[in-house]
Specification:
This protein is of the alpha/beta class. Helix content is 39%, strand content 19%. The protein is built from 16 helices and 20 strands. The strands form 5 sheets. It has a 7-stranded mixed beta sheet, sandwiched between helices. A 6-stranded mixed beta sheet has the order 9-8-7-10-11-19, sandwiched between helices. A 3-stranded antiparallel beta sheet has the order 5-6-20. Helix 4 packs antiparallel against helix 7 (196-208) and helix 5 runs parallel beside helix 6 (168-181).
C-alpha cells in the first residue's frame, strides 16, 4: 500500500480531469467559470473544477437524449452491453490507485479505505449489474387463449443522478449501474466537494466502449447545475442522495417541471440498541465504534444513537473507550490512518455547533468533545452521555464522529426510543437471545436492520429508508425497477 511519503508524492504529481464530460469528451463550462476543489487535509486547492450551469445541463441532457433515441445503447444486445460494463469494471480496478487518491484528496477519507472499500465497491457494483442485465426476464400474463399479453420492462430515457460527497464513487455506481443496465442514458451531477473521481469514471466508461452521450458528468454547484437537472423537461427520472432539505426541493422541482419520478435516499439517525442480555460486549463495542467513527461519521446510516439498557452501560462505555485509544486519527494519506478530517470547514463548523449544545440539558462528554478551530477539520471521536430522547442531539443528524447515548430501563422503552425520530434508514439490536432480538428487529421501522452486527452490506441487498429517510431503493435487483417502466403489450390472436 506504500507509505505516507509515497502518497504525498503521488498527490503532488497527479493531474486530475477538471472539465465537464459531455457526449464522450471533456469540455469547458459554457461560461468558462470554475470553482476550487479544496482538500480539508491541508487546505490546499486540488484543482479548479468546471462550474456547470443550466446551459451545460441542457447540453448534457441533449446528448443523453440523442444517444437514447438513437438506440445505440438502449437497444443494444444485452450481451454486448454486459461486455461493456464488465470492461468498465476492469478498468476501474486497473486505475484503483489513481481513483483512490482522487477520492482521498477530495474527501479526506483515509487512503486505506478508498483503496480497499470505495474503488473495489464501485467496480463490483458495475460488474454485478453488468452480469445481471442479461438474466432479467419479462413476463407473459395469463390472458385468454385468444390473446397474448406481454409485460416488459422498458428503459425510462434520460436519468439524472445527483450524488453526495461522503461516498462519491460508491453511491454514483449504485445509481449509474442499474440505470445503464436497463438501457437508460445518464447525466451525473457529483457534489462540488467531490467531483474528481466522477470525471475519471466517465472517461473509463468511454474507454470500455460505452457510446458517446450515454454517460455525462456535469460538475457545478447544487443550486445551479443540480437544480437545472432536477427541473429539466427531458429528464425522466431523478435519483438523489443527500439531505432531507434538498430532497424536498427535488420533489418540488419535479412537480414544477414534468413530474418526473424522484427517488430519494436521505438522512438517518440510526439507533444501536443494546439490550441487557448482550452476549459479546467486545464485538458490540467494536461494531458500535466502527459504525459511527468510520469515515468520520459522515455516513447516512451511521449508528449515531446508542440506546443502552441499564446494567451494561458502564462496561460497554469502557470497551468503546479502549477501542478509541487504539483508533488512529490523522493524515488521510497515511495508510495506517483509520479516520481522517471532516470533509470541509463548513461541515466542521456544523458539527462543532452540535458539540456546543452539550451540557444544556445535562449531557456530558464521555470521550472527545474538543471542537477544532480555524482550518483544522480533524474532530476526535466523541461520545456524549446523558442525552434526552427529544433533544436536538438525539433527533438531528450531526454527520460527524459523534455518538450520543441514551439510557433506558426496559425493552419497550428502548423500542419506543429507537423508532422515535423522523428517520428510518437503518438500525441494530444486540442481544444474546436470537428470538428476542428477532422479535425486536421486526418492530424497528428501518430499511435495514442488523442483529448482533452493524453495517454489513453488499450490492445483493436493497438499501433505502422508511419515513423521512427517503423512498425507493439502491442496490440489488430491486433497483432495476426504479430505472424501468412496465409496459403491457396485448396481442389479439383471433
Amino acid at each position: 500500500m506504500s507509505d505516507l511519503a509515497t502518497w504525498l508524492k503521488k498527490a503532488e504529481s497527479v493531474k486530475p480531469a477538471s472539465q465537464l464530460f459531455i457526449d464522450g469528451k471533456y469540455v469547458d463550462a459554457a461560461s468558462g467559470a470554475t470553482f476550487d476543489s479544496v482538500s480539508s487535509r491541508d487546505g490546499r486547492i486540488n484543482t479548479k473544477i468546471a462550474a456547470g450551469n443550466t446551459e451545460d445541463v441542457n447540453r448534457a441532457v441533449a446528448a443523453a437524449k440523442r444517444a437514447f433515441d438513437s438506440g445505440i445503447w438502449s437497444e443494444m444486445n444485452p450481451r454486448d452491453k454486459k461486455a461493456v460494463m464488465l470492461k468498465w469494471s476492469e478498468l476501474i480496478l486497473q486505475h484503483k490507485e489513481e481513483l483512490a487518491l482522487l477520492e482521498t484528496m477530495d474527501t479526506s477519507k483515509p487512503i486505506g479505505d478508498t483503496l480497499a472499500v470505495d474503488v473495489p465497491g464501485a467496480a463490483r457494483t458495475i460488474q454485478w449489474y453488468g452480469e445481471a442485465l442479461d438474466k432479467i426476464y419479462d413476463e407473459i400474463a395469463p390472458a385468454p387463449r385468444t390473446a397474448l399479453a406481454m409485460i416488459t420492462r422498458e428503459p425510462l430515457g434520460v436519468v439524472g443522478a445527483v450524488v453526495p460527497w461522503n461516498y462519491p464513487m460508491i453511491i454514483a455506481s449504485w445509481k449509474i449501474a442499474p440505470a445503464l443496465a436497463m438501457g437508460n442514458s445518464v447525466v451525473l451531477k457529483p457534489a462540488e466537494n467531490s467531483s474528481m473521481s466522477a470525471l475519471l469514471l466517465a472517461r473509463l466508461a468511454s474507454e470500455a466502449g460505452l457510446p458517446d452521450g450515454v454517460l455525462n458528468v456535469v460538475t457545478g454547484l447544487g443550486a445551479e447545475a443540480g437544480q437545472a437537472l432536477a427541473r429539466h423537461m427531458d429528464v425522466s427520472k431523478l435519483a438523489f442522495t443527500g439531505s432531507g432539505a434538498t430532497g424536498r426541493k427535488m420533489l418540488q422541482y419535479a412537480a414544477e417541471s414534468n413530474m418526473k419520478s424522484v427517488q430519494l435516499e436521505l438522512g438517518g439517525k440510526s439507533p444501536q440498541v443494546v439490550l441487557d442480555d448482550v452476549a459479546d460486549l467486545d464485538a458490540c463495542a467494536s461494531a458500535i465504534a466502527w459504525g459511527i467513527y468510520y469515515n468520520a461519521g459522515q455516513t447516512c446510516n451511521a449508528g449515531s444513537r446508542l440506546i443502552v439498557q441499564g446494567g451494561v452501560k458502564e462496561e460497554l462505555f469502557a470497551r468503546i473507550g479502549d477501542f478509541i485509544k487504539s483508533f488512529k486519527v490523522g493524515d488521510p494519506l497515511d495508510p495506517s490512518t483509520q479516520m481522517g478530517p471532516i470533509v470541509s470547514t463548513l461541515q466542521k463548523d456544523r458539527v462543532n455547533a452540535y458539540l456546543k449544545l452539550v451540557g444544556a440539558e445535562g449531557e456530558s462528554f464521555a470521550f472527545g468533545g474538543v471542537a477544532p478551530e480555524g482550518n483544522d477539520c480533524l474532530i476526535q471521536p466523541t461520545l456524549i452521555d446523558g442525552v434526552k430522547q427529544n433533544s436536538r442531539l438525539s433527533q438531528e443528524e450531526i454527520f460527524g464522529p459523534v455518538l450520543v447515548a441514551l439510557e433506558t430501563k426496559s425493552e419497550s422503552e428502548a423500542l419506543e426510543m429507537a423508532n422515535g425520530t423522523e428517520f428510518g434508514l437503518a438500525a441494530a439490536v444486540w442481544s444474546g437471545n436470537i428470538a428476542r432480538a428477532h422479535k425486536f428487529a421486526r418492530k424497528l421501522r428501518a430499511g435495514t436492520v442488523w442483529i448482533n452486527t452493524f453495517d454489513m452490506s453488499d450490492v445483493i441487498t436493497p438499501f433505502g429508508g422508511f419515513k423521512q429517510s427517503g423512498s425507493g431503493r439502491d442496490k440489488s435487483l430491486h433497483a432495476l425497477d426504479n430505472y424501468s417502466a412496465l409496459k403491457t403489450t396485448w396481442v389479439d390472436l383471433n
